[in-house]
């Protein structure tokens, strides 16, 4: 590693730690409805919004109504996105005259963007019209992220309130997240991107003559505005097929750095907001620390593995699948962050990474996308693990388990287990299915354990609502489009619904005042416990699968066998 | 019930019975109550079928047989742990049952007495019991007073007094009247009497899962399903790897191996021991002579963070003691002490006795023989509020000494044209401020001084409260005393808070307030007045000497009627929860080592190429002998650890009154870290033994 690599990583860490309280504090003001500096600017838009959807700002609902609102909203988003793909040839803003999209790909893409996964079985520039990209995909980029924030807000209220069944108003949470958080940050970031050379236009594709004298088609389009939200909302769906490796989507090392930063920005800051809303900023930092330690561990292993190189090629750190302008460090950092945070944007091909770096990407996703995780989703996923940790270890202090004064009973444990179970189910069962069926195996580009890793990665990515791909797999088939679509739905709503149920149940409970006899969740011991439970309960399930994929591949590579 | 000799865990008779029971418990209807162990049983059946099928096809596999045997042992060991916990209770129940059966009752029908079987009594019937009669059922004394031998339930041989009216009216079926005659109204239907409930409780027959146990069972079932998924999908992953390594699919994992992996991964240790932990928690309470009406109450006891304690009997000894004599300026210590002692000589109340003793100890004033002194003693009455002595001195004059409350004595001397000095008033209020009771002494119409009567705080109670504070439990003293007195005693005893001049309804209100603020409240009480508060409290312990109403209202009964018991009950509750948590953590932490034993063993052939062993063999960090011995060792360890942990499950983890953080750190170090490391060592040792 060069000095500049190290400095880049250190600046990244410093900025994340520094920006977390600033943005976190701002979001606390936004979501608790107090005064903040954006209110005079965008307050009118918020009011207009409520008028339009006829929502009473002060009316709060129980968790079931909250969940129904959320599901309905997402369902209509899905239907709209599905329909405009099916009929994009008849719709405006399609200068390339791109044809309608196959039903299964449209299904997959609609589910993918609605669930904040942004798995892309298609290539953006040759498939989607500007109309679909802007009104379909970009809109979902905003609202799927806002949905995640809404869920964590409901959870936070469930924990902080007592003896009530009201956990908030979904429409208010959705509107505020979009209007005051996602929108201004996206506008700011896309302006910087445009300044750095990310394209933003409605032109048709340009044909140019290269120096070699051959013709090349340069894709165009409103990229900058979509790229900003794809990073900020941990969506990850690229405007172009090459995603953030494409020079028009991620032209410079500076935009690369900003894109990585943008992925972690909101999920990290939400930990602070969470602490603030619970009346204990420390609690927020505790969660931040647990996430941060897991992030750092993954980053170190990946960097080590990538810089060790491949003994078959003489142990040089390899550049296959990476962009020269980002280098090894810029690519590895991106890969770790994007898989930690359920973003799924890529600036390099994870398929070409060393087996262990590829494994880290997978483990990051398998743990349930809780290392900062998706916007809102990472934190509520973490709350599920906190509940399990508190329940398992909390008994050891001689009291029935409690978190933030809330007793954790059978219902919460049941819901937490369901949230955990559905992801394991989706990853393991579908990977098993694909790895023994002909329609699953026919999409493989690589043999041996690497091929297995490709399948495992795909379903892990879908279940974790990540959306990044190992790229070796041809996923635009009926089998993969449908199965991955189903897995994305399970991974998203199979977690959201139990989590909202937990919020509803906790809200009803009284708060036990903490004392010296209370199991403490705000010290280093708890961080250690939490990480332990995440690794053992969340991770151990995948030990056999990981062993048969990247671990074997790594060991074989050391024996001189590659795939 | 004699419980003192029941502390031996492995009594031969109990062991034998438990071994039998563990086979009986293989009944599917019983097994399914424990999902984790049920899954193991299904695996055992599957493996056994495969072994038999192998024999029939003359393809016998000794490895499969061994796996099958150890899987069955896993199930049996889990059953055994439950059976042994129940067995200890069953022995106690047996002796209780003997007490109950053949009792005859003298039922009063109108004015006639008829002899009926105790089992035929109904609620509301009235029976007569005379000395020598066994009390046929639970009831309330409605007429008379009697001494009753309650050793059958309390183990205490000294008889107790039971009388109509007041707070000592409840009698229990199975106890014996020793003297006198009482009329008893039966208050409980047959089959639901105290002894019936005790039998059911100690046998664990009606044991229902407690809320925390239910939640834990859900967690364990959930983990079981997750690991079931991990194991069930493995053949598919494995099949892919086999074809990629160029091996035939017939090399895929066999069902016995998959079952072995599954059984090792699912939380069998805690799954097997869970009910033993619950039963033994109840048992530990019974050993302390406390009967809980539900396991839920024990759990709540661990959670209690506010204790309401009656001052008298719990914090202070029941009686005040003289600790000092304070004479007026012109009176000598000796004169006051002498008068005080003289007036108390025939006062048999503990206060009176303490005055005599203090005078003797402090001024060496010996006791005089009362009848030689030609003296008449005036006993204390509620009207006069003083007691004393009238005597004729050597010079033939009559004198009278009186001691009593300040007000009573003032009236007394002033009526005798005496003078009540201001300085005495100062002493009296100073003593009151300290929480003491001042007893003013006067001879004829002259005030001599004051006896300092003090509420004696029980020895060691302050330390007890300090321990409770360390555990985060707040203590509240309840007393009828005025605020001044209460504050002083509260300070001396080290309670966190007190309620002075408390009426029963204040207690109830206080409990409701604490609960509204999220606290869980424990209290102990005996009177009918206490019943609502006992019912409202999260843990309400009724004293066995108390009224039937109190006993019905609480969720525990203390057979010793010792108010300090509340603290022990809290400790039992905490220990129970800790044991559950510690073994859960241990069980889950075990999985890491088991993976490292089994995964390299099953994957040894994969991608082996020309070399003998595949790349995943590097995960065999324990360097286990062979793939088969590795799998077998893991399964054997998994089974044996259940047996090894039975004593811990029954006794509970070591308990010390410390803060949550310290308790957690210690338990985590022993059971978390221990749970990670122990199986590595255990599996390696078993593997060495197998390969000898």
List the helices and strands and how they pair.
The complex is a heterodimer of chains A (563) and B (692).
Chain A (H helix, E strand, L loop, with lengths): L2 H29 L7 H15 L9 H24 L16 H12 L9 H4 L2 H31 L9 H27 L9 E4 L5 E4 L4 H10 L20 H25 L3 H28 L18 H14 L14 H12 L10 H18 L7 E2 L2 E2 L2 H27 L1 H4 L6 H16 L14 H31 L15 H16 L3 H16 L5
Antiparallel strand pairs in A: 1-2, 3-4
Helix pairs in contact in A: 1-9, 2-7, 3-4, 3-6, 3-17, 4-17, 6-7, 6-8, 6-13, 6-17, 7-8, 8-9, 9-10, 9-11, 10-11, 10-12, 10-18, 11-12, 12-16, 12-19, 13-14, 13-18, 14-16, 14-17, 16-17, 16-19
Chain B lengths: L11 H13 L3 H4 L3 H22 L5 H39 L3 E6 L2 E6 L8 E5 L8 E11 L1 H4 L5 E4 L6 E2 L4 E4 L1 E6 L7 H10 L7 H22 L1 H11 L10 H11 L2 H20 L2 E3 L2 H9 L2 E5 H5 E12 L5 H12 L5 H14 L11 E4 L7 E7 L5 E7 L1 H10 L6 H12 L3 E7 L2 E12 L3 H10 L3 E5 L4 H11 L3 E3 L4 H13 L4 E5 L5 H6 L2 E5 L4 H6 L2 E3 L6 H38 L24 H25 L8 H31 L2
Parallel strand pairs in B: 10-17, 10-19, 17-18, 19-20, 20-21
Antiparallel strand pairs in B: 1-2, 1-3, 3-8, 4-5, 4-6, 4-7, 4-8, 9-21, 11-16, 12-13, 13-14, 14-15, 15-16
Helix pairs in contact in B: 1-4, 3-4, 3-9, 4-6, 4-9, 4-10, 4-23, 7-9, 9-22, 9-23, 10-22, 10-23, 11-22, 13-14, 22-23, 22-24, 23-24
């Amino acid at each position: 590693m060069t000095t500049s690599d190290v400095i880049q990583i250190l600046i990244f860490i410093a900025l994340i730690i520094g920006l977390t309280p600033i943005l976190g504090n701002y979001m606390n003001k936004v979501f608790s409805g107090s005064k903040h500096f954006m209110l005079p600017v965008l307050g009118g838009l918020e009011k207009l919004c409520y008028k339009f959807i006829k929502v009473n700002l002060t009316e709060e609902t129980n968790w079931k109504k909250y969940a129904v609102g959320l599901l309905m909203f997402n369902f209509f988003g899905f239907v709209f996105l599905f329909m405009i793909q099916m009929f994009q040839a008849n719709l405006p803003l399609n200068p390339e005259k791109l044809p309608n999209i196959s039903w299964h790909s449209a299904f997959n893409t609609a589910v993918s963007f609605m669930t904040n996964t942004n798995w892309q079985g298609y290539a953006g520039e040759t498939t989607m019209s500007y109309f679909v990209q802007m009104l379909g995909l970009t809109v979902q980029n905003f609202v799927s992220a806002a949905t995640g924030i809404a869920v964590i807000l409901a959870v936070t209220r469930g924990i902080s309130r007592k003896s009530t069944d009201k956990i908030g108003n979904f429409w208010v949470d959705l509107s505020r997240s979009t209007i005051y958080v996602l929108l201004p940050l996206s506008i700011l970031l896309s302006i910087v991107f445009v300044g750095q050379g990310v394209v933003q236009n409605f032109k048709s594709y340009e044909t140019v003559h290269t120096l070699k004298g051959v013709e090349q088609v340069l894709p165009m389009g409103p990229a900058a505005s979509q790229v900003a939200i794809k990073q900020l909302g941990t969506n990850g769906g690229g405007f172009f097929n090459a995603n953030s490796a494409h020079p028009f989507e991620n032209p410079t090392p500076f935009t690369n750095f900003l894109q990585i930063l943008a992925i972690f920005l909101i999920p990290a800051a939400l930990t602070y907001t969470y602490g603030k809303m619970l009346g204990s900023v420390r609690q927020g930092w505790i969660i931040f620390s647990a996430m941060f330690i897991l992030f750092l561990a993954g980053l170190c292993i990946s960097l080590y593995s990538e810089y060790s190189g491949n003994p078959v090629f003489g142990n040089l750190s390899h550049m296959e699948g990476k962009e020269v302008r980002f280098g090894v460090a810029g690519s590895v950092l991106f890969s770790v962050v994007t898989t930690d945070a359920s973003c799924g944007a890529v600036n390099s091909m994870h398929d070409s990474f060393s087996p262990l770096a590829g494994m880290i990407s997978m483990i990051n996703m398998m743990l349930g996308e809780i290392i900062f995780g998706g916007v809102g989703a990472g934190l509520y996923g973490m709350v599920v693990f906190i509940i399990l940790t508190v329940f398992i270890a909390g008994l050891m202090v001689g009291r029935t388990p409690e978190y933030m004064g809330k007793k954790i009973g059978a219902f919460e444990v049941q819901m937490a287990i369901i949230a955990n179970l559905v992801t394991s189910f989706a990853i393991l069962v579908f990977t098993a299915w694909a790895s023994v069926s002909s329609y699953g195996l026919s999409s493989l580009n690589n043999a041996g354990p690497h091929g297995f890793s490709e399948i495992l990665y795909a379903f892990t990515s879908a279940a974790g609502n990540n959306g990044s791909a190992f790229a070796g797999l041809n996923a635009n088939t009926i089998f993969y489009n449908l199965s991955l679509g189903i897995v994305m739905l399970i991974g998203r709503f199979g977690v959201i619904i139990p989590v909202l149920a937990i919020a509803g149940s906790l809200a009803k409970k009284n708060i036990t005042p903490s004392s010296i006899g209370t199991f403490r969740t705000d010290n280093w011991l708890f961080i250690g416990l939490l990480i332990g439970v995440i690794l053992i309960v969340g991770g151990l399930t995948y030990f056999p699968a990981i062993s048969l994929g990247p671990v074997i591949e790594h060991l074989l590579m050391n024996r001189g066998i590659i795939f | 019930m004699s419980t003192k000799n029941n502390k031996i865990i492995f009594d031969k008779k109990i062991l034998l019975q438990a071994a039998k029971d563990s086979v009986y418990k293989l009944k599917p209807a019983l097994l399914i109550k424990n999902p984790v162990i049920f899954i193991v049983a299904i695996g055992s059946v599957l493996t056994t079928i495969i072994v038999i099928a192998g024999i029939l096809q003359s393809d016998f596999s000794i490895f499969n047989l061994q796996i099958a045997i150890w899987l069955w042992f896993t199930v049996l060991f889990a059953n055994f742990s439950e059976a042994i916990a129940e067995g200890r209770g069953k022995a106690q129940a047996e002796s209780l049952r003997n007490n109950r059966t053949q009792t005859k009752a003298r039922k009063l029908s109108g004015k006639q007495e008829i002899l009926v079987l105790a089992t035929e009594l109904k609620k509301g019937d009235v029976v007569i019991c005379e000395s020598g009669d066994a009390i046929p059922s639970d009831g309330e004394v409605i007429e008379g007073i009697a001494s009753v031998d309650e050793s059958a339930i309390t183990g205490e041989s000294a008889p107790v007094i039971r009388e109509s009216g007041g707070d000592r009216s409840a009698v229990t079926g199975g106890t014996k009247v020793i003297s006198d005659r009482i009329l008893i109204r039966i208050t409980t239907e047959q089959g639901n009497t105290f002894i019936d409930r005790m039998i059911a409780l100690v046998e664990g027959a009606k044991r229902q899962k407690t809320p925390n146990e239910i939640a834990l069972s859900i967690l364990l079932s959930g983990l079981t399903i997750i690991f079931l998924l991990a194991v069930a999908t493995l053949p598919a992953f494995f099949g892919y790897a086999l074809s990629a390594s160029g091996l035939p699919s017939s090399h895929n994992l066999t069902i016995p191996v998959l079952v072995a992996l599954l059984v090792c991964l699912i939380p069998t240790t805690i799954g097997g021991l869970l009910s033993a932990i619950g039963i033994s928690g109840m048992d530990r309470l019974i050993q302390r002579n406390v009967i809980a009406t539900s396991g839920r109450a024990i759990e709540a006891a661990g959670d209690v963070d506010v204790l309401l304690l009656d001052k008298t009997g719990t914090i202070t000894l029941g009686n005040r003691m003289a600790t000092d004599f304070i004479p007026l300026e012109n009176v000598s210590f000796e004169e006051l002490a002498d008068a005080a002692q003289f007036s108390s000589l025939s006062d048999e109340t503990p206060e009176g006795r303490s005055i005599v003793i203090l005078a003797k100890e402090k001024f060496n004033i010996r006791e005089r023989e009362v009848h030689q002194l030609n003296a008449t003693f005036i006993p204390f009455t509620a009207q006069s509020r003083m007691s004393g002595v009238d005597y004729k001195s050597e010079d033939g004059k009559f004198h009278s000494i009186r001691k009593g409350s300040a007000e009573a004595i003032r009236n007394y001397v002033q009526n005798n044209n005496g003078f009540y000095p201001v300085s005495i008033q100062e002493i009296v209020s100073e003593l009151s401020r300290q929480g003491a009771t001042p007893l003013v002494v006067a001879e004829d119409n002259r005030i001599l001084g004051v006896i300092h009567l003090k509420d004696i705080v029980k020895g060691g109670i302050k330390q007890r409260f300090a321990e409770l504070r360390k555990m985060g439990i707040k203590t509240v003293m309840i007393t009828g005393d005025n605020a001044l007195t209460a504050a002083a005693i509260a300070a001396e005893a080290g309670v966190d808070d007190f309620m002075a001049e408390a009426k029963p309804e204040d207690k109830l209100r206080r409990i409701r307030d604490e609960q509204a603020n999220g606290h869980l409240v424990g209290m102990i009480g005996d009177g009918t007045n206490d019943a609502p508060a006992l019912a409202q409290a999260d843990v309400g312990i009724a004293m066995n000497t108390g009224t039937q109403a109190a006993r019905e209202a609480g969720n525990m009964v203390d057979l010793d009627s010792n108010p300090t018991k509340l603290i022990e009950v809290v400790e039992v509750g905490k220990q129970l929860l800790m044991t559950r948590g510690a073994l859960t953590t241990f069980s889950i932490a075990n999985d890491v080592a088991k993976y490292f034993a089994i995964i390299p063993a099953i994957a040894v052939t994969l991608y082996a190429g020309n070399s003998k062993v595949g790349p995943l063999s590097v995960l065999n960090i324990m360097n286990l002998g062979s793939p088969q011995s590795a799998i077998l060792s893991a399964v054997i360890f998994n089974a044996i650890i259940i047996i090894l942990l039975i004593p811990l499950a029954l006794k509970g983890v070591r308990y010390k009154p410390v803060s949550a953080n310290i308790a957690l750190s210690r338990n985590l170090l022993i059971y978390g870290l221990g749970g990670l490391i122990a199986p590595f060592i255990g599996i390696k040792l078993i593997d060495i033994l197998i390969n000898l």
